[in-house]
Specification:
The complex is a heterodimer. Chain A is mainly alpha-helical. Helices cover 78% and strands 0% of the residues of chain A. In chain B, strand 4 and strand 5 form a beta hairpin. The chains are: A mainly alpha, B alpha/beta.
Chain lengths: 226, 349
């Protein structure tokens, strides 16, 4: 154990902090992923099917969603954290802490994921949709059994990109006391010149990213028959 | 005359592009009777795909009436339209199979909302795959199949809801000639076995010649000529129709090649094009011409088609004889109901 203490003099004194920070990061990522995943998917699908000339063409809904997605995608995340703090307080009762960080995370990630879903679904061959229409399939059936089913592999790939981006964003949650590995690296590692803390925090984040990428790739490949 | 199963009345389809109105289909009426294999021929951009998409309202017409199976298609609710579509199968140039589903699942897809039990659906899928001779591929995915096989799957899918009508939108255009022939044979077979009415769009007269009993020729959004296959092939009136037919019978290529030969034509030696329909072909014409008029005929090109069990022949011959005899021989041909014309090589050039 001596060599470990030599290389990571500060880390070895605070294993519990790392455990807590990792837990906080996982918590933020998981909750954000589930909620943004569902809402982003719904908005992405809506954008595709309400677009001009598509299954459930609707100018009002399409334009509204399209503009909203653009708007929220243009706000830098750090600024988003600040400007929606009143909303955060309304929803979770406080504007600081890990749970409070999840609200801006969700709002920041939804439009990002919605666009990804939209792009994936737009790649589904229009001819396949037309063929489904020609056999009398309902719009709901076409969404579930054609759009989503045909693009499952690509949706997994897009989700991996989004998930990694969520991990990235949680590092900024520290700005409102959200905790997590990013926060640990900055507050303790950077501010106190404890470089080994930065390094280990980074290693853990790296491990998460690699693992997600690995599982995602394997999963996508397993379900892809094209 | 049967009641038409498909009746399109005065169909217009307009597309607006940057303030400009493009008329893809103009004032087209079309009646298809039960059991027909109706070919719609035209070059790309003629509006034939747009026209047939009106039948199941994948394309909404700008004006006109669409009657299918006695139903006014334009007055159906969304649900009624979906049910009506189940009775109109459609196959496409690029097959449009779902790549992430097995062949069996692709064929089963139209039955999802049918209310049939899983067992029942499985049986039906099996039967359909047998019909298109692909039972062994049930668990394969589309990317493991050849183009012809994919189109067979698409046909099985189109037939899942036991439609009375099958629309084929350039279904053989992406296939090689041999595969095309087998798909056409399958369509013909289905037409006879299931009394399936087929509307076949194509730019290849070959395909039409193979299986259709009626033809319409489209150009610039209009039907410029229509009729029975035999009438269209034996007596085309429009230049475009002749164009298509000549491509199919390869008369044009033949004349091109004949042009390259030194035929030493003179008033006693003429290059003639003979077309004949039906029983005329059975008369020993060339022998008769020699026996009665001492006219020697040298066949440079011959093509014989059997359309709807009626022979249709095309001959290009050099006729040689005294000019009087030659004239009598030509008259004789005309009296036999043969369409005979001198081929003007300089004009053809």
């Amino acid at each position: 154990m001596d060599w470990l203490a030599r290389i990571f003099p500060n880390v070895v004194t605070m294993p519990e902090d790392f455990l807590i920070a990792t837990g906080q990061t996982l918590y933020m990522v998981l909750v954000t992923a589930i909620i943004s995943g569902i809402l982003g998917l719904i908005i992405g699908i809506t954008l595709v099917v309400t677009a001009p000339g598509k299954l459930l063409e609707n100018h009002l809904i399409y334009n509204l969603l399209d503009k909203l997605v653009n708007l929220f995608r243009s706000i830098p995340f750090v600024i988003l954290l600040a400007i929606i703090s009143p909303l955060t307080r309304l929803i979770v009762g406080t504007s600081i802490g890990t749970t409070a960080a999840i609200v801006p995370l969700i709002i920041g990630v939804i439009p990002f994921y919605a666009r990804q879903v939209q792009n994936v679904l737009l790649d589904v061959d229009g001819g396949i949709i037309e063929a489904a229409q020609s056999v009398g399939a309902s719009p709901m059936s076409i969404i579930l059994h054609v759009y989503l089913h045909e693009s499952t592999a690509e949706l997994i790939r897009a989700s991996v990109v989004t998930l990694i981006s969520v991990i990235n964003l949680t590092a900024m949650a520290g700005a409102i006391g959200g905790g997590g590995l990013g926060n640990l690296a900055i507050i303790i590692g950077y501010d106190r010149f404890e470089n080994d803390v930065i390094f280990v925090a980074l290693l853990i984040i790296l491990a998460m990213v690699f693992l997600i990428q690995l599982i995602g790739d394997k999963l996508a490949k397993a379900v892809d028959h094209s | 005359m049967h009641e038409p199963i498909i009746n399109l009345k005065d169909i217009d389809v307009e597309f607006k592009q940057n303030q400009k109105v493009f008329k893809a289909v103009q004032q087209v009426s079309l009646q298809v009777e039960p059991g027909d294999i109706y070919g719609i021929v035209g070059y790309s951009g003629a509006g034939k795909s747009t026209l047939v998409r009106v039948i199941n309202r994948l394309q909404e017409p700008s004006s006109g009436e669409v009657w299918v199976n006695g139903q006014n298609m334009l007055q159906l609710s969304k649900l009624e339209l979906r049910n009506a579509r189940k009775k109109i199968g459609m196959i496409f140039q690029h097959f449009n199979l779902m790549n992430q589903r097995t062949i069996a699942d692709n064929v089963a897809f139209p039955l999802k909302s049918s209310g049939l039990s899983k067992d029942h659906i499985n049986q039906k899928v099996q039967r359909l795959l047998e019909l298109v001779e692909l039972s062994d591929k049930a668990q394969a995915y589309p990317n493991q199949l050849s183009g012809g096989q994919k189109q067979r799957v698409a046909i099985a899918r189109a037939l899942a809801n036991d439609p009375e009508i099958l629309i084929s939108d350039e279904a053989t255009s992406a296939l090689d000639p041999k595969t095309t022939a087998s798909i056409l044979a399958l369509l013909k077979n289905l037409n006879q076995k299931l009394q399936l009415t087929v509307v076949l769009i194509t730019h290849e007269m070959e395909a039409v010649k193979e299986i259709c009993n009626k033809v319409a020729v489209m150009e610039n959004g209009r039907i410029i000529e229509r009729g029975s296959l035999l009438d269209i092939f034996s007596q085309p009136t429009q230049a475009l129709t002749k164009d298509f037919i000549n491509t199919a019978t390869q008369i044009d290529q033949a004349i091109e090649k004949i042009k390259l030969q030194d035929l030493k034509l003179n008033p006693n030696r003429k290059l003639m094009h003979l077309e004949y329909v039906g029983q005329n072909t059975e008369a020993p014409l060339i022998t008769e011409l020699y026996r009665q008029f001492s006219v020697v005929s040298n066949i440079l090109y011959g093509n014989m088609e059997i359309l709807q069990a009626t022979p249709l022949g095309n001959l290009i011959v050099v006729m040689e004889g005294a000019s009087d005899n030659l004239a009598s021989a030509i008259n004789y041909c005309k009296n036999q109901g043969i369409l005979i014309n001198e081929v003007n090589l300089t004009e053809a050039i």
